[in-house]
Amino acid sequence: METSLEHMSSIRPDCYSNIKCGYCGNASGNISYQVYATDLTAEFYQKLLDRGWRRSGTVLYKPDLRASCCPPYAIRVDSLKYRPSKDQRQKLNRFNKQMIGQRYLQAAARLYPLTREQAKKRKQDFDLIERIHESEVYEQKGSLQHDHSFVVTVEASNFSEEKYSLYENYQRVVHRQSPTSIDRNAFTSFLCDSPVRNKLTNNQICDQQIGTYHQCYRINGILVAMGVLDLLPNCVSAIYFMYHENVKKFDFGKLSAMREIALAKENGYHWWYPGFYIHDCIKMRYKAEYSPVYILGPESYQWQLFTKDLKHAFSIKKYHSLIIDSTRTPTGPLTHLSDLSKISDEDSINEDLSHVIDADVPLFARNMPGILTREELPMESDLGKMFVKLYYTERFACDLEDWGSSSIDDLYSIKGIVAEVFSAFGPELCKEIFLNFQ
Hints:
By secondary structure, this protein is an alpha+beta fold. 27% of the residues lie in helices and 24% in strands. The strands form 2 sheets. Strands 5, 6, 7, 8, 9, 10, 11, 12, 13 and 14 form a 10-stranded mixed β-sheet that branches. The chain has a 7-stranded mixed β-sheet with strand order 3-4-2-1-17-15-16, covered by helices on one side. The longest helix is centred in the N-terminal third of the chain and has 15 residues, at 86-100. It is elongated, with a radius of gyration of 24 Å. The protein starts with 8 loop residues before the first strand and ends with a strand. It is an enzyme of class 2 (transferase). It comes from Golovinomyces cichoracearum. Keywords: Acyltransferase, Transferase. GO terms for molecular function: arginyl-tRNA--protein transferase activity.
């Protein structure tokens, strides 16, 4: 086969799995289909996010929202339309005053006074980007110095003892993890290793970093917080955030969210993806406080405004297909959902989830939202055109010796593996990947 896989993404299929839920403690309630990623283009991973996938290190996983005990929904915030709430503005202003100091503020007001128009504009308009940066050391005027040197940098996602020390403190103090269970290998594989290719592009706004990076926050030269980010063509995707116990009072979780939204706006990424949203998890409720926030329909893959009515519907029933009603408004796009007031928990109770505990059920037969069914799969001749890398050679799946004798119902055969991949990714995305069995 004469083809180049250089511009394609490489994955190694794994399985449909059910593990312990980290939110409610259900022993097998966290259910997803997962693959290992060895090499991903940023463009391909962006498309995966928009189909409800996420990554943890080099593992890509797509949750089964219908079967999971705490279904995680993909959400995103429009940075161009984002307006911080009063509470968010207050937290940022309070932090800035702490970093800058009263002495500096008084001297700056005397030496570099604002005009009446400037003062009026600052009072009436909250400029997110301006406020985000004003406490940084680079914003000091003349010979004046802030009380504290505050520096934020976007760095390569490399391991360092400085970063690991911060991680160790966060896991031990905030997550109350046993010190003996915290190690450098876990930190590296979870928060440093990434299959997403790094590159530098220009989007007519600025030179744009693409790939996985660490956004590091330092006060007086000490690393006090760090965000792990995937910077993609159309979004800033937040992977993880950690802070040292000594700066807990600043509420860095909310400060970092505003800074990541500002990064998306300032550098042309547009959207901020804060990770999955689980309505029943109180610790995740904050993600929906940054508006306008949109939620991804797990079956339609359409983004919809996450309204108060829709949030209320999640309090009644855990799983929603979020299929938009076919009725259009006279002036615009689809806006109406089916009547959510009539749903009840009984719908979930009656759902047949017997497939979850059966390891031999193919993915396309599991009634998993957003997955192609057996009837929707391409013909076997088309399945066979999936690229495969095996023993340092590249070939079509149909050229493998066992292709003809295998069945899509055999999960461990090449045809069964390819069928599950097609079911999970869809025909269009399958054109951008190859299966790596090296």
